[in-house]
Amino acid sequence: MAKKSMTKKSAPKATGSVSAAVAPGAGGPPRMLNHYLETVRPTLGAAFSRTNLHSLPKLVKIVVNMGVGVAVTEKKYLEEAIGALAQVTGQKPIATLSKIAVSGFKLRENLPIGCKVTLRGRRMYEFMDRLVSVALPRVRDFRGLSSTAFDGHGNYSLGLSEQMVFPEINPDKYTRPQGMNITFVTTARSDDEARHFLRAMGLPLKKDDAQKD
Predict the structure, then answer these.
(1) Which CATH superfamily hosts domain 30-39+54-69+117-200?
(2) Is 33 exposed, middle or buried (0-12, 13-18, 19+ CB in 10 A)?
(3) Residues of 174-202 as b/e, b for ≥16 C-beta within 10 angstroms?
């Protein structure tokens, strides 16, 4: 009796590319990721005269943080902030705790006074797309973002004064304005590289005479 030959299928190899970190969904890869791969990355390669794609700046994560100082006395506002942040980012936030005690502000150590979310992969690109395309244009009297809010290591932070600029937020449910800080963590080697990269990704950074690319 002839024996059937058994062939073992090999597992697919990881490519190590940016797109490999984003799980495919029903709608395909995020639009902002496609923009980076098809437009931004080739542009950066030509601008920096680099052929190694892995040496070009890319987005690692986005950290969204809400500080809720009134949560010291009104815990319901922290619960509202957590709910709003979950709606905006599509991910469950974690509570941030106070590091020191300040008697003048009735603040005890390890007291929940805020919340934050760290976005990676698909949610990171989708959040940035909504921020650039929808939220920032809804900011009253918006004239661009500061082009100097970098930390010296290629990471950029911006602040929003209220969460209502995101259309996901129901103004009837969240009546108290709540600001947030948004930090873009990149692999850029310098602030100038990060500035060039974020502008190419669509972030509306102001241009002045001293910082024209």
Answers:
(1) Ribosomal protein L5 (3.30.1440.10)
(2) buried
(3) beeebebebbbbbbbeebebbbbbbbbbb
Query: What pLDDT digit, counting tens, does each position of 18-57 carry?
Result: 554 555 455 688 999 999 999 999 999 999 999 899 999 9
Digit-coded pLDDT (tens) for 149-179: 999 999 999 998 888 889 888 888 877 788 8
User: Which is nearest to 114 in space by CA: 143, 155, 84?
Assistant: 84
Number of other residues whose CB lies within 10 A of the CB of residue 7: 5
Contact between 180 and 68 (Cβ < 8 Å): no
- Domain ranges for the chain, please list them: 30-39+54-69+117-200
Asked if residues 147 and 211 have their Cβ atoms less than 8 Å apart, the reply is yes
Smallest CA-to-CA distance from 35 within 146, 205, 212, 198 is with 198
What distances in angstroms separate CA 33 from CA 75, 126, 129, one per listed residue? Answer: 38, 9, 9
Q: Got the DSSP string for 119-186?
A: E-HHHHHHHHHHIIIIIGGGSTT---B-S--B-SSS-EEEEES-GGGSTTS-TTT--S---EEEEEEE
Residue 198 in tokens:
């974020």
